[in-house]
């Protein structure tokens, strides 16, 4: 799994994958093999591949992780990059707005027309991308102001699909 660790305004890419009985953790350019064990509700034990071992307290509040060991206290936000991308798309659509294709594809079917009232989550069109049909939904309750594509059209990533005005 890939994550972004955010601390003091700095982002670090983190990749975690199963490796034997533990995990291989990639932190930017560094790679570590670790084994972690829960030894209490908030206590963890971490053993590195060189045999060194650390005990620490860990508490999670949403995406914030608070880690303490001895006199060291760290707060790190762990973010799923796919969630960030979805949030960015939602933010770009904002309170309505232009819906754009996330990846190149072909419009299979239009499910809404100009002037239609739509509800948040309602399917507006089907976009085929990478041999999968993707249901493009309205981000808000509103009215379809403009439709920029027709069934059968191909679109590039970022291509405009339609505009929904929030009501």
Could you give a quick summary of the protein structure above?
The chain has about 170 residues and is mainly β. It has one helix at about 80-95; strands spanning about 1-5, 10-20, 20-25, 30-40, 45-50, 55-60, 65-70, 70-80, 95-100, 105-110, 115-120, 125-130, 130-135, 140-145, 155, 160-165.
How does this structure look, described?
With 167 residues, this protein is mainly β. The protein folds into 2 domains: 2-79, Glycoprotein, Type 4 Pilin; 85-166, Beta Barrel (OB fold (Dihydrolipoamide Acetyltransferase, E2P)), CATH 2.40.50.100. It is 8% helix and 60% strand. The chain contains 1 helix and 16 strands. It has one helix spanning 81-93; strands spanning 2-7, 10-19, 22-27, 30-38, 43-48, 53-61, 64-69, 72-79, 96-100, 105-110, 117-118, 123-129, 132-137, 142-147, 154-155, 160-166. The strands form 3 sheets. The protein has an 8-stranded antiparallel β-barrel with strand order 1-2-3-4-5-6-7-8. It has a 4-stranded antiparallel beta sheet with strand order 9-16-14-11. Strand 6 and strand 7 (64-69) form a beta hairpin. The two termini are 39 Å apart. The mean pLDDT is 87.
């Amino acid at each position: 799994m890939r994550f972004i660790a955010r601390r003091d305004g700095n982002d670090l890419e983190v990749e975690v994958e199963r490796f034997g009985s533990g995990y291989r953790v990639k932190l930017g350019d560094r790679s570590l093999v670790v084994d972690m064990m829960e030894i209490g509700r908030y206590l963890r034990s971490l053993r590195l591949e060189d045999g060194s071992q650390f005990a620490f307290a860990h508490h999670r509040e949403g995406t914030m992780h608070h880690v303490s060991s001895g006199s060291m206290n760290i707060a790190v936000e762990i973010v799923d990059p796919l969630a960030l991308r979805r949030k960015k798309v939602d933010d770009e659509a904002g309170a309505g707005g232009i819906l754009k294709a996330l990846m190149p594809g072909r419009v299979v079917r239009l499910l809404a027309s100009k002037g239609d009232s739509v509800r948040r989550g309602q399917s507006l069109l089907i976009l085929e991308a990478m041999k999968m049909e993707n249901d493009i939904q309205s981000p808000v309750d509103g009215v379809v102001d403009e439709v920029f594509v027709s069934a059968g059209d191909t679109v590039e990533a970022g291509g405009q699909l339609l505009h929904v005005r929030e009501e």
